[in-house]
Amino acid sequence: MKSLPASRSLLFVFIATLAAGAFVATLALALAPASALALDGPAAKKEVEYVPLVYIPDVTEYATQPSQIVNILNQLFYLALWALVAFAVVMITFYGLTWILSEVVPEKVDAKRRIGEIIFGLILILGTYIILNTINPDILNLNIWQVATSTSQVKIPEIKIPPNLGLEGSPVRSP
């Protein structure tokens, strides 16, 4: 069986990551009701309660609270992140041993190239995490069940219009 070139396998991993992200985003939007996605209204400050359709022994009791479902999603995200890092370490070890123990020059070159690609992938994965954590740590908390509401008040400036413009009946306030 012929293996894929490294650029194709890297492209495959990138596309698979995008597809998984799109799936998680679609799942999050499908699970959240429309009233919970609104920024105002009666459901804006409430948590949405998960009501199971079918009773599953030993699972339904655990998964009935929204915070528990969110914790499961958060833990799956971090588990996937650490699994990728662990897999990269194993692959670097494997290709490092191949590089050291191989006596054929093309195999050494291939092992060295693959180690570089794995390190690039690690930088890409961890860089994404660091950038998202730097921008806003709440991005990494997949709390899809509670809508963030703004508590700050925005003051709208008053527009001053000269009285001789003929806008007496307009909704814009004049001095």
Written description of the protein model:
The protein has a domain at 6-31 and 65-144. The mean pLDDT is 71. By secondary structure, the protein is mainly α. The protein has helices at residues 6-31, 34-37, 66-101, 105-135. It contains four helices and no strands. Helices cover 55% and strands 0% of the residues.
Keywords:
single chain, 175 residues, mainly alpha, 4 helices, 55% helix
Task: Please sum up the structure shown.
The chain is built from 4 helices and no strands. It has 175 residues and is mainly α. The longest helix is centred in the middle third of the chain and has 36 residues, at 66-101.
Mean pLDDT: 71
User: Care to count the β-strands?
Assistant: 0
- Measured as a percent range, the helix fraction is 55-70%
Query: What is the H/E string?
Result: HHHH
Q: Mind describing the biggest β-sheet?
A: none
> How far from one another are the termini?
81 Å
Helix/strand/pairing category: mainly alpha
Uncertain runs are none
Q: Radius of gyration from the CA trace? A: 26 Å
Shape: extended
Number of helices: 4
Beta-strand proportion = under 5%
